[in-house]
Design goal:
Layout (H helix, E strand, L loop, with lengths): L2 H4 L17 E3 L9 E4 L12 H6 L4 E5 L11 E4 L2 H12 L8 E6 L4 H14 L4 E5 L2 E4 L13 H13 L4 E5 L2 H5 L10 E4 L7 H4 L2 H14 L5 E5 L4 H6 L5 E5 L7 E9 L2 E8 L2 E7 L4 H16 L4 H10 L8 E4 L5 E5 L4 H14 L6 E5 L9 H11 L3 E4 L9 H9 L7 E3 L3 H10 L6 E5 L6 E4 L2 E4 L2 H11 L1
Parallel strand pairs: 1-2, 2-3, 3-4, 5-8, 5-9, 6-8, 9-10, 10-11, 16-20, 17-18, 17-20, 18-19
Antiparallel strand pairs: 6-7, 12-13, 13-14, 15-16, 21-22
Helix pairs in contact: 3-5, 4-10, 4-11, 12-13, 13-14, 15-16
Length: about 475
């Protein structure tokens, strides 16, 4: 695309530009080649402005920088803007010819439940014959191509490139998990969402957002982006839902397990065999059956079903899609052993998620079963939540195994000791090696005991001192089951 056309929607100071045909947009100087437009972005660990010369040496045809950057480049066009991070979103959308306009896009945000809600909705779409893609913590899952591991929400360049690729593949619908980081960093600022979904809000990412007010305001941005022809599906079982509904111009679909919302339920049955309820909407009712478990999954199912109803999908197709979605990778995955003990693995890594998962296990377990909780806390993240997570684990367990969970640059002993500050009973053991601890916990499982393994879900690595080391809870558990 011609540079002048590419930047026409960006507010900049008048600048005389030569004819330049831009072949690609880059934010990393190592990706630059002849014909590249390099966008220098000040990040949290590094500043792209420090790599301008390297980008030029690699063949950049033009660069975009923040006005605050004092360096002036004369060898190639230097376009100065107020905020290069927000400009990147506009550039990516323009470069790929506004692909989000051609897709039906659902954006799901919230502390917990994004992946499960997205997975259930994808199952409903597939039951309806809709060719779709799902973007989130499970990676990029698209009909007709291999799953790719990615950030929860892609950067603008890869996001809009993916949209264009989806269109070329015949995909019509996209389901996106939209993280608070992505909203705050303008990664989705130029995506035209058809539906915005709020699941819930609880303490998370405060190492980044600093306080719950900032965290809330980041989430709200998704709903402020929606126009009057869009739909906002809001979970009113979270008290923040009502506040969010006041911040959008979109058509509201309110959802709750109780009544007094557009969509609600009755006749709920929820146990280790699954979930059943009657869905109530517009004076109509139809049954929903799922093999997923847990009260929080009732909310996730409600949200997914509500999205589908807002898109006029037939209730019978919705029923079929929900029932087909029998497992969400790394979310309350259950493994049964021959001695009738149970292993449950879940991605939970916040106090709220711990409360929901462990409360579910405690309510559904046989009375005489003992609950062992295997968990840790991530390094370089919210330190304040560590004792809270320890306290919650203690409240619902007979024994705790406190282990590493992506310690990153922190010392494992320091993280574990902060978890211990929330404990009152001596029912725990501390470990420096997650794998050895998990094998020991599995070996010690008695008849009908339950081991709840939290934090990593289907992650296949441990992040230690800047390196990702191969590691999988799932592989260890499967190996143990096969050997026994």
């Amino acid at each position: 695309m011609e540079l002048e056309k590419l930047i026409k929607n960006i507010s900049i100071e008048p600048i005389s530009l030569p004819f330049i045909d831009v072949d690609n947009i880059c934010t990393h100087s190592s990706d630059v080649n002849n014909g590249s437009l390099f966008v220098a972005i000040k990040g949290f660990a590094t500043d792209g402005h420090n790599y301008i010369q390297q980008a030029i040496d690699n063949g950049a045809s033009a660069i975009i920088t923040d006005k605050k950057n004092s360096e002036t480049v004369s060898s190639i066009p230097n376009i100065k803007v107020e905020n290069s991070r927000s400009v990147l979103s506009k550039l990516a959308s323009t470069f790929y010819n506004y692909p989000s306009k051609e897709l039906n896009i659902v954006g799901i945000t919230g502390t917990n439940g994004k992946t499960t809600t997205a997975s259930i909705l994808r199952s409903i779409y597939k039951a309806n014959g809709i060719k779709c893609a799902q973007l989130g913590t499970l990676g990029t899952i698209a009909d007709g191509c291999r799953t790719r591991k990615t950030l929860t929400t892609l950067d603008p360049i890869n996001l809009h490139r993916s949209f264009r690729e989806f269109i070329q593949m015949g995909i019509t619908h996209v389901i996106m998990e939209v993280s608070s980081h992505a909203l705050d960093q303008f990664r989705v600022a130029d995506v035209e969402f058809n539906v915005g979904v709020f699941t819930n809000l609880s303490e998370e990412h405060l190492d980044y957002h600093k306080n719950m007010k900032n965290y809330f305001e980041a989430k709200v941005k998704l709903f402020q982006m929606l126009n009057k022809s869009s739909t906002a599906v809001i979970n009113y079982d979270d008290k923040i839902g009502m506040e969010i509904s006041k911040k959008t111009k979109a058509k509201l679909v309110t959802v709750s397990k109780e009544s007094n919302t557009n969509i609600s339920l009755s006749n709920l049955t929820n146990n280790f065999n699954g979930i059943e309820f009657t869905l109530n909407y517009d004076d109509r009712k139809f049954p929903i059956t799922s093999s997923l478990i847990g009260n929080y999954n009732v909310e996730n199912i409600l949200c997914a079903v509500s999205i589908a109803l807002s898109q006029n999908i037939n209730p019978k197709i919705i029923q079929e899609g929900v029932s087909r979605c029998d497992i969400i990778p790394g979310r309350m995955e259950i493994f049964k052993l021959e001695n009738k003990s149970t292993i449950i693995i879940d991605y939970a890594h916040t106090p709220d998620a711990y409360e929901k998962v462990l409360n579910t296990v405690q309510k559904m377990k046989p009375k005489h079963s003992k609950v062992n909780v295997f968990f840790g806390c991530g390094g370089d993240r919210d330190r304040e939540k560590r004792p809270l997570m320890g306290k919650i684990a203690e409240n619902y367990s007979d024994k705790m195994w406190i282990v590493p969970d992506n310690p990153r640059t922190e010392k494992i002993n320091d993280i574990n000791n902060e978890i211990v500050k929330g404990l009152k009973k001596n029912t725990f053991q501390l470990y420096k090696d997650r794998g050895k601890a998990l094998r020991k916990a599995l070996d010690e499982l008695s008849n009908e005991d339950i081991l709840v393994v939290l934090g990593k879900g289907r992650e296949d690595y441990q992040e230690i001192n800047g390196k990702k080391i191969n590691y999988s809870d799932i592989e260890i558990i499967k190996g143990f089951i096969n050997a026994n």
